[in-house]
Amino acid sequence: MMVDGLNEQLKEFGHQTEVLKIPFLSCYPAMPAQMKAIRSFRISDKFDKLIAVRTPSYLIKHPEKVIWFIHHHRGAYDFLGTEYQDIPDTKSGRNIRSQIIEEDNKALREAEKIFANSREVQNRLKTFNHIDAEVLYPPLANNQFYCQEYGDFLFYPSRVVHHKRQHLAIEAMKYTKSNVKLLIAGQIEKKEMAAFLEKIIKVNGLFHKVMLINKWISEGEKVSFMAKALACVYIPFVEDSYGYPTLEAFSAKKPVITCMDSGGTLELVQDNETGFISAPDPRELANCFDQLYFDKKLAKRLGEAGYEKMKSMNISWEYVIRRLLH
Amino acid sequence: MKIAIVQNLNPFQSGKTEMISNLLMNKLKEFGHETELIHIPFVIQNEKELIRQLKTVQLLHLQTFFDKVIALEIPACFVRHSNKTLWLVNSASFFQELEKKNIKQSLIRKFISFSQKSIGSCSGLFVLSKIDCVFLKKYLEKDCEILFPISNQKEEWERVVKKLIL
């Protein structure tokens, strides 16, 4: 979404652009060979400038390389020692982790400029790679969001993977006392995850309270759901940036419920001002859900404050392009 | 089906390959497939680089992401995939360029052996023109079928797509 938006906007500003999509399997034994391939690409004579976004595209060499860094391969960095660590602590795992860090350090230092998509990611670059990056917030690709009403359902639009913690939002629905409902929309990447979520819904008899749309909904559908939602739930574990759902919710004047360990979202969401910051605990989350359901004026006030907060941060494509190119 | 259309990276050009890849992508989408266009950077800078870059292409991983690969150009077509079909555009000019570069015969032999191995495992080999057929036979000793959509009619593209994704 960020790359599509950037591509479109660069064209609007009169530049010739190409999006170079490189398939990359983030499964640790397969990573070194693919990294080697990306490192060997020769594109300097084809482009005046390279803007690298997703990891590890910044491994490509270019004399005028700018990196808009969105996250590391987190299993080798901040996820180490957590349940999300995807590289085992074995001799070969440690070896691959060292290769990833070494290659990242080399490639990052080749760049003319490095931007981070949030303070969270800026801090990670400083901590793990000793790199100073400037924060450059990504705007929405196409902002058509609006507010129609503060309805009876909470909307959680996102890719469905474990660290986005849709399971926690579903578990919270066990404890709600109101008639609030939860709508989760997004592609479930793994079959086991679909089974896991369905099991939570089934075991707790939440069919009437939780709806799960297992696909990428269209932009139009998302805009429409957001317009009618009571609030947006976005509770990832240590998210890289504020996350597009947060920005989309604020654009539609909807408050955002997030968690105190959700990382980048905390740069935008302020407790009791633009939404709620809850402990990552189903009962506490349920309280937040109920509070907004029972007091829709509060939902409106928080949502409108989120909208104003977002406007005050000057998150615009004009600014982004100026910083990336000059 | 999740399909990758693979071609060489030739930015800001709108030649035959771009026309074919865009048309094919739109038609595949029309027929209900999820399609992505993948560009593989490749430059024949010098002899040493040639084989190294061919090997680089093979290090890329497409297997997990796509059910099918349709490759349109040499050397992008050397990507590894268990269900790969080649519909080669401009293969004659690739070999002509290779001839012009006055590359050592031993290296050309290496290139040919590499290509034969890579192409040998594909599910189908199609080209757009007779001249491409002639060059593939001459260099890679491969027989291929000419596949050219003679119109933009739905039925005609159904025929083309059916051949490519079988």
Tell me about this structure.
The complex is a heterodimer of chains A (326) and B (166). Chain A is an alpha/beta fold. Chain A folds into two domains: 2-136, no CATH class; 153-312, Glycogen Phosphorylase B (Rossmann fold). Chain A has eleven helices and ten strands. In chain A, strands 7-6-5-8-9-10 form a six-stranded parallel beta sheet, with helices on both faces. Chain B is an alpha/beta fold and 166 residues long. Chain B contains six helices and six strands, in the order E-H-E-H-E-E-H-H-E-H-E-H. In chain B, helix 2 packs parallel to helix 4 (105-120) and helix 3 packs across helix 5 (130-140). The radius of gyration of chain B is 15 Å and the shape is globular. Chain B starts with a strand and ends with a helix. The model of chain B has no long low-confidence stretch (mean pLDDT 89). Chains A and B meet through helix 2 of A and strand 2 and helix 2 of B.
CATH topology of the largest domain in chain A: Rossmann fold
Note the run of SSEs of chain A as H and E. HHEEHEHEEHEHEHEHEEHHH
Largest interface: A-B, 21 and 24 residues
Query: Any idea what the radius of gyration of chain A is?
Result: 20 Å
Strand content of chain B: 15-25%
Uncertain stretches of 5 or more adjacent residues of chain A: none
Our count of domains of chain A comes out at 2
**Are there runs of chain B of 5+ residues with pLDDT below 50, and where?**
none
Percentage beta strand of chain A: 5-15%
Q: Taking all residues together, what is the mean pLDDT of chain B?
A: 89
Strands of chain A, count: 10
Anisotropy-based shape of chain B = globular
Shape assignment of chain A: globular
